[in-house]
Each structure stands twice: as C-alpha cells, then as structure tokens.
Specification:
The chain has 562 residues and is α+β, with helices and mostly antiparallel strands. Helix content is 58%, strand content 12%. The protein has helices at 11-18, 40-51, 73-87, 127-142, 148-155, 168-177, 181-194, 198-207, 241-248, 259-336, 339-353, 355-368, 372-425, 444-464, 474-490, 499-517, 538-544, and strands spanning 2-8, 26-33, 60-66, 94-101, 104-112, 114-115, 120-121, 211-214, 220-223, 229-231, 525-527, 533-535, 547-549, 555-557. The strands form 5 sheets. A 5-stranded antiparallel beta sheet has the order 1-3-5-4-2, sandwiched between helices. A 3-stranded antiparallel beta sheet has the order 8-9-10, with helices on both faces. The longest helix has 78 residues, at 259-336. Residues 273-295, 435-448, 459-523 have a biased composition (Basic and acidic residues). InterPro entries: Endonuclease_MobA/VirD2 (IPR005094). Residues 25-143 form the MobA/VirD2-like nuclease domain. This is Relaxase/mobilization nuclease domain-containing protein.
C-alpha cells in the first residue's frame, strides 16, 4: 500500500482534477462530510471560505491511497479513519473520491486543515513519516506484500546491488549506443543460461542482436549491433572461465567470422534497419494520426452528451419555474377576487390614508398582516429569490463542466503529444528485437565521427600487425589522429539538429577555412570607407544569405516577407 499526501491550495483546480473522467475509467464521489454543498467544487469552496478567516496558505490536505491488492469499501473507510486519526485530522470536513484507472481502484481523500472552533490550521508535522508508518501498518493488517521501498523503511537497511564497474572504453560505448554494461551482461548471461550447447548459445546471441566472433587476442569475442567488440568471459555473470571453455569446446573457432567480418555484418544490419525504420516510422505516424482523430471524436461525443444532459436539465428548470410563477399568480388572482381580500385591502387603505388611524393602528396593522397585498409581494419576492439561487447553481454547474471539459481536452492533447513523441522515438524493430539500442544516428557530425573512428581503428589494427598501408606516411597518420581528436572534442557540446543551427555551423566552418587559407573570394569582399577592398565578416555574409540575428542564441533563418 502506497500513501502520498501533501498540504495544498487551489480547491477548484483540485476538484476539476479529481472529477476528470478522461484520465480515469470511472470516477465516483463517495462521501462529503462537514459541508452544505453536495458537489466537490462547492465543498472545496466552503473549505477555502472558512480558511479565508485564518492565515493559512494551504488549507487543504490531499491524500491518495493506492493498495497493492483490491480492498473493500469498508476496508477503505477503515483505513481512511486510521490515517485521519494518525494525522490529527479527526472529525475534520473531508471528501472521498474513488478512481478506477487501468483496471486498478484507488482512493483520494481531501481534508480541510482549518479547525472551525479555534480558527487555526492544524499543523501537519512529520506527515511523510506518519504516512510511511501507516502504510506498513495497513499492509500488514490486510495481508498485503510490502514494496521494496517500505521494506527498506521498515528494516532501516540498504540493499546492495551487484554492479559491473565500467571501463573508459565501456563508458564511451554506452554514450554511443545507450546500452549500459549491466544491460549487456544481462543479455549475454541470459543467452548463455537458456542455451545447452555452444551452437545454441550462438543462435541465442544472434536473436539478441549480438554476433559471436573469433577473437584476435582471445578465443571468442562478441560484436554488438553497433560494431563494438566485447570480451565474452567478462560479460558472463557468475560463470567460471573453466566452465565457459568446456561448453565452447565443441564449437570450432574457424567456423566463426572474424572480428572484421562481424563488424561488416553489423554495418549491413544497420543499413537494412535504417530502411525498415523509415517505412515503419511512416506507418506509425499514419496510425498515430488516425488514433488521434478517433480519440478526439470520442471525447467530443462524450462531452456533447454531458452538455445535452445539462441543457435538458436547464430547460426542465426553466419550465418548472414558469409553472410555479403561473401557479402562484393564479392563486393570488383567485384570492384577490374574494370579498375578504377586498375588505382587508380597503381597511388597510383607510388606515394608511387617515393620519389619526395610522398613528394608532399602523404598527398593529403591519404586524398582523392586515393588507394581503403585502403578503403577495413577499411571496413573489421569495419565489424570485429561490429561482435566482437555482439559476446561480445551474451557472456554477456549467462553469464546473466547462473546466472539466477543458481539463479533459488538455489531458487528451497531452497524451496525443506523448504518443506522437513515443512513436517518433520508438526503437525500430530489427532482426534482433531483444537488443537494446538507440535510434539510427542521422546527425552529420555523428556520422562523420563514426567514419573517423572506424578509419582510426582500421589504421591502429594495421599498425599492430606490423605494417602500414601502401603509400601511407607519418604525416597522414598524424592527420587521421588529429581529425579523430577534433571529432571527440566536438562531441562534448550538445548535438545540433535544428536546420538553422546546422547552417550556422556551416557558415562558421566556411569562415574558419577561408581565414586559415587566407584566400579571399570576390563575392565576400566589400569596399570600405577609404575605397579599399575589405573582407566582409561572417555575420555580414550570413545576413546577406537571408539570416537575421536571433534573440536567444545564434542566428535564425529569415522568412520571406519578414
């Protein structure tokens, strides 16, 4: 059982959130205690009205009760009463709302923190600690299993996890692929555990996106989808080397591809995956647009039905008020046509028109209700006041329903944006769907870095084997290493994917190259005040190419008509 509570303000917004039927499959207002209003907006308005006589900034205390297993309503009420006594909110006005979300029922309770007798806010000291204690107590009382967090709270001890210490190379690989060494070890170890032979282990690795290769310095190596090479023995958890060699003994190393061949296979898989990614992304976008239109239409139907019901209620109310006015008018007309009514009216006129009688009988006639016309006037005024209250209550319902509709539409648009972003950022299914990886790299700087890294690694392998490539000089090797270092330094700043920022980078690079070569293009030269030819700055050339200075950072693209 998980209990989350906090003091807060904003009762109207909280009521709208609790009555949001879009984010929840079912919303039930179970109980309101200590208020005149029977709706949630009115109850919270009364809470805040009482708090306006105090200095309290957060007059409400909101609690959510999320049990790990279903509870009966009696158990919910019993738990709420126990929590209420623990927090010192016994007898305070409250409201209870039940939600069913994703097939799971949970409860929300909102109390007023204002003590009406003392006109002071109840101090909620150490409420988090009290809620944790109550969560443990109620879970044990109802026989629920404690989550790990509450177990740690109860036992006051930290659980240690077996973690693989990553090397510098593994950290660099994690930055490129997004796969932590722990995740990679879990995948490779799981493949080893479920296989009963070396051949089965090889196929299990391929299903997870890894290629078992013949190592240069070791018997076996593992190449992942990104072309990175890993030691097999390092990524087998709790598997002794002797046991690994005994199982892999039946597999001929010559039947396995070399590390370079495995890298080529990984590159081919990446190319095929990129093509499938484009097709699947287009299909996902179409599906997201179709689902978004369906959800908007469904919400529009639900909200229209609610407004139709409220409109029918309004029409029924106006009809009832009109009938009451007509009935009162008819009753008063019938009474006014009687002899007694006319006599009492004439006597009242006589008393009011004679000063002597007015001084003696005026106060008696007023208290006794001698003039029936005054009673008719009071009846009409009372009926008008009641009708006005009913109209105000109806307008309040309209405003509350409008708030709920806006909140539901905001929630729908929020979810639609999340779905669109999730579909856009979802990893594309490859031949090895269980492999964890990032999406295809499309940033030009990253692709250039990958090419430099591959070239640098190839040169390093050739040097380690004792020879250089044909025609390669020491200066060329130094240039390759310098290019690789420059790409690594560029990788320290955030990757830019905005077209305007990429063109900004291109202009900067163009200016740097021209400055280093000291070559002046005729189109980039201008005439100064003294008549001499001067080189234009890169900012001037950027403005001439359709750019303008932005407010925040860099330069933005200037549209036609700006």
């Amino acid at each position: 059982m998980i209990l989350k509570g906090s003091a807060r303000s904003g009762g109207s917004d909280l009521a709208t959130h609790l009555l949001n039927a879009y984010d929840n499959e079912q919303v039930e207002l179970a109980d309101i205690r200590g208020t005149i209003a029977d709706d949630l907006h009115g109850a919270f308005a009364e809470f805040e009205a009482v708090a306006s006589g105090t200095k309290a900034q957060k007059p409400l205390y909101s609690l959510s009760v999320n049990p790990s297993e279903p509870l009966t309503r009696e158990q919910y009420i019993e738990a709420v009463e126990a929590i209420e006594n623990k927090l010192g909110l016994t007898g305070q006005p409250r409201a209870i709302v039940f939600h069913i979300k994703d097939g799971r029922e949970h409860c929300h309770v909102v109390w007023s923190r204002i003590d009406g007798a003392e006109m002071k806010a109840i101090h909620m000291a150490h409420d988090r600690r009290k809620l944790c204690d109550m969560a443990v107590h109620l879970a044990e009382q109802y026989g629920h299993e404690l989550p790990e967090g509450l177990k740690a709270w109860k036992q006051r001890e930290q659980f240690k996890k077996d973690k693989l210490e990553a090397t510098l190379a593994e950290n660099a690989q994690q930055k490129k692929s997004g796969i932590t060494p722990e995740q990679r070890r879990e995948d490779i170890t799981a493949a080893y555990r479920e296989a009963d032979s070396a051949s089965a282990f090889r196929h299990a690795l391929e299903e997870r996106g890894y290629i078992l290769a013949r190592g240069d310095r070791r018997a076996f190596a593992v190449v992942d989808w990104f072309g990175d090479v890993h030691s097999l023995s390092r990524y087998l958890k709790d598997v002794p080397r002797k046991e690994m060699r005994a199982r892999m003994k039946s597999l001929d190393p010559l039947s396995l591809p070399s590390v370079e061949q495995a890298k080529e296979q990984a590159r081919a898989q990446q190319k095929a995956s990129a093509e499938r990614a484009r097709e699947q992304r287009a299909a996902q976008e179409d599906a997201v647009k179709r689902r978004s239109a369906e959800k908007r239409a469904a919400m529009e139907r639900v909200q229209s039905a609610r407004w139709l019901a409220l409109s029918q209620m309004e029409q029924a109310l106006f009809l009832t008020q009109q009938q009451e006015r007509m009935a009162l008018h008819a009753a008063q007309q019938t009474e006014a046509s009687g002899m007694v009514f006319r006599m009492r009216a004439k006597v009242a006129d006589l008393v009011a028109g004679t000063p002597a009688l007015q001084s003696v009988l005026g106060h008696i006639a007023g208290r006794a209700g001698l003039d029936p016309r005054e009673r008719h006037k009071l009846e009409n005024e009372a009926l008008d006041r009641r009708h006005e209250r009913e109209k105000i209550a109806l307008e309040g319902r309209k405003k509350a329903l409008d708030k709920i509709d806006r909140r539901e539409r905001m929630a729908l648009e929020r979810d639609l944006k999340r779905e669109a972003l999730a579909a856009r950022a979802a990893p594309v299914a490859r031949a090895a769907p269980q492999q964890r990886e990032k999406g295809t790299r499309t940033d030009p700087r990253l692709l250039q870095e990958d090419g430099l890294g591959a070239a640098f690694n190839d040169k390093a392998v050739e040097e380690a084997r004792g020879g250089r490539g044909d025609g390669e000089t020491e200066g060329e090797g130094r240039r390759l290493r310098d290019s690789w270092d420059q790409a690594q330094k560029q990788d320290k700043r955030p990757h830019r994917t905005d077209p305007r920022l990429l063109e900004d980078d291109a202009l900067r690079a163009e200016f740097d190259e021209a400055a280093q070569a000291r070559r002046h293009d005729s189109t980039d030269e201008g005439e100064g005040e003294d008549g001499r030819s001067r080189r234009k700055s890169w900012k001037q050339r950027a403005q001439e190419k359709g750019h303008r200075r932005g407010r925040g950072r860099g330069y933005g693209m200037k549209r036609d008509g700006d």
